[in-house]
Amino acid sequence: MSEQTIVRAIKKVWKSQPTIEGAGVHLKRVFGFQELPLLDPFLLLDDFRSENPRDYKAGFPWHPHRGIETITYVLDGDVEHGDSLGNRGMISAGDIQWMTAGSGIIHQEMPQGNRKGEMLGFQLWANLPAKSKMMAPRYQEIKRNDIPVLTTPDGIKIRIVCGTVDSISGPVKDVMSEPEFLDVEIPAGKAFTHSIDASHTVFAYVIDGRGYFDPKRSPFSHEAYGDNYFDMEPPCACENGTLVLYGPGAKVNIITDTESVRFLLISGKPLQEPIAWYGPIVMNSQEELKNAFQELQAGTFIKGE
């Protein structure tokens, strides 16, 4: 069977874990440094959701980025942002900001929540290839109404942030890892099949409900990363807060039973380059990393001013 026709099986699954980030934001880390290089070109995914403003109001005050792209996707509430280049704005429910930090930017992101104090959003970090790490910083800020929504005859709803589904392309363009970023909702009792470049890393993150991400429904066909070794009855279905990392193939197939499911489906071309990572700066060598922090201390971090 050709790899181009293989439905991807699950390689690993794991649950997001509580952590504290920024100035004291309580969130769930889906993956990060510990999972390198499993999700190449992706570095980190955080899930920040709460009904208590004390969990997120401290926010992420001024901090630098270099060598990566940060993708902030908000489903409920507002995130106020600003940067060293003078940009200011608000990311609201349904909006996405795709920031290419490139050679360097200093910015802040301050979650505000909605009128009820609720906040729901995600931040994904994508690595930049060595040739692009020192490119000029830029933003693609996309509002909710500019993100196309495809609804199939079965009632499956697909918000296309980046990539193409049935000849409909998302508004985020010209990003480095050829990514696809979809927000998918499948009603109960339906199936979703989607073709993905066989050379890409692919993962899904469940944000509501539960579904079967392995069409064979076999909980023993993949590694349950971080689970109890003595759990002899792992669940077949993946539920809210679960990350699904796929193995090789060119299609994914997700099925629901008595419940609906909503998930982010994200893929990208692996860079297969060395990583030197400290905090919000990701380079290819320790020397480049050291140079970045020396420039930060010397006040020469921001280029082109």
Automatic annotation (TrEMBL):
Keywords: Dioxygenase, Iron, Metal-binding, Oxidoreductase. Its EC number is 1.13.11.24. The keyword NAD does not apply. Residues 25-125 form the Pirin N-terminal domain. Residues 182-301 form the Pirin C-terminal domain. Its cofactor is Fe cation. GO terms for molecular function: metal ion binding; quercetin 2,3-dioxygenase activity. Binds 1 Fe cation per subunit. Fe cation binds at H63, H65, H107, E109. The keyword Metal-binding applies. It is an enzyme of class 1 (oxidoreductase). InterPro entries: Pirin (IPR012093), Pirin_C_dom (IPR008778), Pirin_N_dom (IPR003829), RmlC-like_jellyroll (IPR014710), RmlC_Cupin_sf (IPR011051). Belongs to the pirin family. This is Pirin family protein. The gene is yhhW_1.
